[in-house]
Model the fold of this input.
Amino acid sequence: MSFELLIDILIATVPLMLIFATVFAFTTWLERKALARIQNRIGPNKVGIPCTRIGLFGLGQPTADGIKMIFKENIVPTGADRLFHLLAPILALIPSMLVLCFLPLDFPWLNENSVKAFLLDGAVIFFFAITGLNTLAVFMAGWASRNKYSLLGGMRAVAQMISYEIPLVLSAVIVVMMVGSLDAAEIAGEQKGGNWFVFYPWGFAAFVIFFIAALAETNRSPFDLPEAESEIIAGYFTEYSGFKFALFFLAEYIAMFAISGLAVTLFLGGGDGPGLAVLPWLSVIWFLAKIFALIAVMIWLRGTLPRLRVDQLMGFAWKFMLPLSILNIFVAGFAWHAKQLDSQFIMVITWVISLAVLYGAASGLNQLNRGKVRPREYKYAE
Amino acid sequence: MNEEISFWILSAIAVLGALVAVRKRNLIHGVFALLVFFAGLSGLFLLLLAEFIAAVQVLVYIGAVGVLLLFAIMLTERVAGDDDRRMISRGWSWGLLAAAAVFVVLLLRPIQQLPSQDAAQPIKPSVEALGHKLINPYVVTLEVLALLLTAALIGAVTAAQGLRMPKEEDSPE
Amino acid sequence: MGAFTRRNAIVVLFSVEIMLNAANLNFIAFWRYSDNPELLHGPMFTLFAIAVAAAEVAVGLALVIAVYRHFKTVDLESINTLRE
Done:
């Protein structure tokens, strides 16, 4: 292994880790603050500069949390599988970190000759393949704890992730179909100059589906059934404490960043934004800003929506999202053929028809499903 | 040079994973070892510049087959996964003999005519070419495959569901 | 080796998967070192093999579950109704 190659690899990967780990700390603070405001509280405001009374709006909170996590005792339950109990958080973190490499972030210090972390032809498919590994980590954590609530949470998480992965991939397929490439950089390049895919009818529908599925995939509320504390304590990480818990926490947030990053790449134009012609390095800033906007929406949803029931969750994935995303593929194919004709009139017609079809399908499916939702039947506890 | 080192590391991972998967008494551990084997193979595919196959390997084997195996174990074995019964079958010596025989027979031909190791031609890995191939000459195969997968799906569901007894509990999802 | 010597049906399925993967690896390797790799025969065959293997695992596990419901075991030596 040559020395220059090693240096290049480090230059390509280390900033990613540093940036996202720092951003993670800030995001936890932001989330607590925002949730507190939504719930009419103040949120963390004490931890600031040590030994003074300066609070800095509680910006020191992530550091304090981190120190606390590291010094906490690491408890492994009796009868737990020690090896898997240790491996699970690591296995959760690695895929989330790995997936960051596929995002088309053009750092200014990366020139043409340097090694991009991953310049694969099939970046998008690799992204989905590797995010799928998170499922296994969750299952491993739930199983290794040897706690029935953990196992329940793990099984719930696996079922949910598998169900929502299908609409997630199907909505990404639309963009891949329109661009004709699986390369993330090429997809982002196609949307240069405000030509974002979210501004098309099919793109908008796909973006909404993608975002909902992404929420479910990262176990965010309102889809946080695997860790529903009112039902099954904390789900698969009930038995985790100290640093391992911190790793799970980190993995979850990094996965959120990664999937928001993919949403930005696919639908929101990647690093596209005003001022790029003057300052090319702004693209990284734009990219991160868009990721943050999506994260803010996630936090907002967490503060406002109640949690779903298990049957509602599964029904929503299979009876609403899946048919809608398949229909959306047809609409996108139709739009693609209409685009080849290159006529203004046909473009308008296409817009109207696709909007009508998508809206009709969404409301129709909604009606169909609504009739079947009954109040919960209590089987064992009456 | 880099490639050679990577090749040896990945092969070691794959072989170890496979051995552990077959030898482990605890079935859940076995599944995870099997997944390590699949991951090693996926790395080898990447090394051979078949990156689409590598992605599919991760997606199908580690993502889908792994979870399927875990679910099946959860539905059949005790949850702990420990298997303290005798794990080797009665006729194991015959089985080992058969395996060895197959191995030797398979190895016999290549050893007799070991090809001179010629350098691989430089190719550009391309998912696009694969896609075009898939649609142009192999489209019928693709359709048949889709049909097969659908049939397998329905078959698997019916087989796993079994005949519904009136007093039995609900079948698993 | 596992396919012949283990008693648990699921482990036998593991072993079958390992063998299939080994075959796939051979396809890819021989494609890579073949005379005209741009024909893409190897990856194509592997792709189909993987898809068929996925179907095979699904059906195999469904059968294992069906057998388990019937016999309450997945031990291959206990399932010998046909012999008796």
Remarks:
- The helical segments of chain B are 2-23, 27-47, 51-76, 92-112, 127-135, 139-161.
